[in-house]
Amino acid sequence: MRRMTARPANAHQARLLRLLRDGGPNSRAQLGDQVDLSRSKLAVEVDRLLETELVVADGLAASRGGRRSHNIRLNPHLRFLGVDIGATSVDVAVTNAELEILGHINQPMDVREGPVAVFEQVLAMAAKLRATGLAEGFDGAGIGVPGPVRFPEGIPVAPPIMPGWDGFPVREALSQELGCPVMVDNDVNLMALGEQHAGVARTVADFLCVKIGTGIGCGIVVGGEVYRGTTGSAGDIGHIQAVPDGRPCACGNRGCLEAHFSGAALARDATEAAEQRLSPELATRLEANGTLSAVDVAAAAAAGDATALDLIREGGNRTGQVIAGLVSFFNPGLVVIGGGVTGLGHTLLAAIRTQVYRGSLPLATGNLPIVLGELGPTAGVIGAARLISDHLFSPA
Amino acid sequence: MRRMTARPANAHQARLLRLLRDGGPNSRAQLGDQVDLSRSKLAVEVDRLLETELVVADGLAASRGGRRSHNIRLNPHLRFLGVDIGATSVDVAVTNAELEILGHINQPMDVREGPVAVFEQVLAMAAKLRATGLAEGFDGAGIGVPGPVRFPEGIPVAPPIMPGWDGFPVREALSQELGCPVMVDNDVNLMALGEQHAGVARTVADFLCVKIGTGIGCGIVVGGEVYRGTTGSAGDIGHIQAVPDGRPCACGNRGCLEAHFSGAALARDATEAAEQRLSPELATRLEANGTLSAVDVAAAAAAGDATALDLIREGGNRTGQVIAGLVSFFNPGLVVIGGGVTGLGHTLLAAIRTQVYRGSLPLATGNLPIVLGELGPTAGVIGAARLISDHLFSPA
DNA sequence: CTACTTTTTCCACTCTCAGGACAAAGGCGG
DNA sequence: CCGCCTTTGTCCTGAGAGTGGAAAAAGTAG
Questions:
Q1: A164: how many CB neighbours lie within 10 A of its CB?
Q2: Which of A236, A216, A238 is nearest to A227 (CA)?
Q3: Which residue ranges does UniProt annotate as crossing the membrane (chains A, B) (predicted)?
Q4: What pairs with residue A143 in β-bridges?
């Protein structure tokens, strides 16, 4: 099939496309209720969108008491690719124009192998999805990488955990390979976008999205838009000092949040506890697998292991203290906790909540929900699809 | 003179008014270069503005090689009132439409005397300024209060240091008394606006403005706009924990930044040092005045007093640590330090810089200026004038 | 089948706005 | 002082956007 290349010609068309994306198929009449346009104008714009094949007519809608309206929907052949590159694994998903996931693959992979190797794998995964018949090609792709990005160019800058990627033209390279427009962003920002689009943050304009995985980062949404900071490193909270004169961190400082709590830190703490025989539960798991990860701690905690619970609680307290500061500063309407470590569940959440509600002023916490992300591992790829669709569904 | 009541009728007119406000008098031709409008359209809009008397023709501009253009300027009779209510003093200033300060009064006053008493004084000060012939009335007023504000309504909410003000309809009351539109905001946000308009932050889209006075607050500017948070308490960094298990704070927690460093904390520390005879310099000043304030510490430090310097340095370190965290999180393009305590000058600034540059990642600090505010005590009133002018110079 | 709704199309009319033509005003070299 | 140039301001026309009424089309309810 021939790929769509058209873009909305004006703000009205862009508005309509986003309504169809977020609200699904819609009758012309319903669209008219949602935008402030005269019937004639609306008809003209819809006709033009039909001409470009960005949207298609799709049968008749149910009657609202009179003549039935024609349904309009985004072209069902449109396909977006969402890629979420984590520190230790890659997620690739295909969505339709309504950003519903049609297919999703996850594979372990070390981001430190460098952009060339990772790209090869991402393209292979995309090809595999295509081979299932879900897509014949892609109309756009969004990709998240675990580090700061110069957003307009789509180039990682000085990413600590993926050294080989510094300055690599991710956007351009992927665009070449896939033959479609590409947008690149930090993985945490994409998680925030995902939760905003289809998760817990649908109705909130200003919120924080804390992702605790191998590292810790925070997506910042201001007025419904992701805030990226001057150099694209906003939300990099893993290296905020959580413990004065605490543990040494890879960044050269001491006491960074990430050094005390994150997937990596937790695995190390657990291993240590197992070796010192503080926790029989963890010790058996270490013997069984050879290594320990956050998943093991979660399992041990679920089994009631006191040491594991302590580790989670302490980490949650530290994280909560940092978040409390951010809440005082940013006064968000919602805090979302996500990332791999959220398997730790309510023990973690309870510790974070305690610290935030205690450490911030009542005016800021009074009506502040602190919740786990709703989308789990799909938040990133949905956010990626959302990123590129936002780009494509805006006036050219 | 009859007050202006007109408002720009559309976005073009608003744009022109702001250009004239920020760029001063301008020829019609120069205006044409700055906005993307046809000559005819521009002429029409300018004519309409002339009709409303918001702008006036003002002689001929210098030739640019051909026919000389007519100059256009904002009506020189327009007057804005800027009010900055601090914890312990009030600033009132009159500006023209270009936000140049024509007259400025400062008076000590305790905000805890409540809104009625403070209003009386503010109105008296405004009357005094009017009596000098600077203004015959006001076309708009901006007012800053030292606490969180529900911005759309202009009502303080749960302000810790001004209990009597909770829920008092500042905007409506002042608007009644002055007979002109009024906007209310947090004093820190107004300082940020002031520095953005006429100070060090003129060219920066995203920055932080830390005000260290009786308390500590932080103005947040995102994309050129003040960010106020969900409940209007964004930037309330005084109660971020700076010292684990530190001093008890009025808010009920321990170790708040404000409890360890602020005008109030500094005065108490200085008094204690003087009483314990640790600092002869401070001791003599205490005997002379009966009390000590930040000013005394600044003077003692300037005279080389080691204790005073230590107090400043330690406070700067604490503040710097907190700011370092905020810089990691927010990745601003500039940090401005202002407020009453900035009399402590470079000792303070050096301490803050050290902590920030050491405690945040290079990508965030690489090109991050940390500077003192340029406007000193006038930042607040200029920001207040800017606030109301932004409101009035926007489409009705 | 009739009366009433809702949706859609068609059309005439208004309004905005860009850009060309031209007049007005000034600079500059001779 | 005089032509010739540039810049500025004004007027006018034509293209396009957009509105809202009228009527046709397609249903529903009784």
A1: 16
A2: A236
A3: none
A4: A83, A184
Contact A229 B331 (CB under 8 A): yes
- Apex A69 CA angle, A66 and A74, nearest 5: 160
Residue A276: alpha-carbon gap to chain centroid: 37
Q: Which of B28-42, B177-191, B283-297 is predicted least confidently?
A: B283-297
- Which residue, among B162, B230, B357, would best test binding to A if mutated, counting the most A CBs under 10 Å from its CB? B230
- Return the closest nucleotide (C1') to the Cα of A31: C7
Q: For residue B47, what are its two tokens?
A: 């004519």
pLDDT 10s digits, B128-175 = 999 999 999 999 999 999 999 999 999 999 998 898 999 999 999 999
pLDDT given for residue B264 in this prediction:
85
pLDDT tens-digit map of A131-178: 999 999 999 999 999 999 999 999 999 998 898 999 999 999 999 999
The CB density around residue A94, as the number of other CB atoms within 10 Å, is 24
Residues 6 or more apart whose Cβ sits within 8 Å of residue A11:
A395
Q: DSSP letter at B236?
A: -
CB-CB under 8 Å, B329 with A234: yes
Q: What mean pLDDT, rounded, does chain B reach?
A: 92
Mean pLDDT for the stretch of residues A352-372: 94
B84 CA vs D17 C1’ separation (Å): 47
Interface test with B, best of A256, A363, A367, A370 (most B CBs within 10 A): A363
Q: Sketch out chain B's domains with CATH numbers.
A: 11-74 (1.10.10.10), 80-196+378-393 (3.30.420.40), 202-373 (3.30.420.40)
Question: Quick check: helix, strand or coil at residue B56?
Answer: strand
From chain B, pick out residues whose CB is under 8 angstroms from the CB of A355. Answer: none
The neighbour count for residue A152, using CB atoms within 10 Å, is 11
- Amino acid letter for position A36: D
The total of other beta-carbon atoms located within 10 Å of residue B149's CB is: 27
Name the region of A119 (left: φ>0; alpha: ψ -120 to 50; beta: rest): alpha
DSSP A340: G
Contacts of A223 (CB under 8 A, 6+ apart): A205, A206
A68: tokens are 């039935």
Rg from Cα positions in chain A: 23
What are the pLDDT digits (tens) for B292-327?
888 888 888 888 888 888 889 999 999 999 999 999
Q: What does DSSP assign to residue A31?
A: H
Mean pLDDT of chain A: 92
Mark the nucleotides of strand D covered by protein, meaning any atom under 7 Å from a CB: 5-12, 18-22, 25-29
The beta-carbon neighbor of A361 closest among B222, B236, B367 is: B236
- Candidate from A221-230, B64-73, B108-117, B122-131 with smallest mean pLDDT: B64-73
Nucleotides of C under 7 A from a protein CB: 4-12, 17-21, 24-28
Burial label for A224, CB within 10 Å (0-12, 13-18, 19+), is exposed
Question: What per-residue confidence (pLDDT) applies to A1?
Answer: 59
CA atoms within 13 A on the CB side of A61: 19
Q: Which residue of A has its CA nearest to B150?
A: A363
Mean pLDDT of the region A364-376:
94
